[in-house]
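Consider this one:
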Amino acid sequence: MSDKLRKNVLGVIFDDERNVLIVSRSNDPLHWQFPQGGINQDENMELAIIRELEEELGTSKFTVIDKCPETHSYKWSKSLIRDDNVGQVQTIFILKFNGFSSDIVLDNRELGGYLWIPHYRVTHLLHEYRKPVWKIVKKYFNIKTLTRKPPKR
């Protein structure tokens, strides 16, 4: 078996009040996570995150603010492996939502629900498996200004 990881993009999305969008999976309504999806071969990552968000959330009213300098990788349990990929490497994007909640129309084949939550509640609601992504985001970004933190010396 190879150790090939599927390339994936993930969106940490903020509204004007700095609330964060989390989504639940259709097959597990208590599994809260950030919207994400695979990258097509030779696809630009910024275009891929907007495409994935439009597919899953029914809107493209997002602005990419920045790309996180660190990725998140993980492996799936053997029961979830469907091809030669054994997990995913996620490129994390910080985005601003420019629409209204009424613009969001979920793809119910993939997602069961969504919530806008205050940034300080993200750790409490994210599925345990998804918390490392939020830790990475907080390491590099000031959540109140959505700007990168200066490098530590």
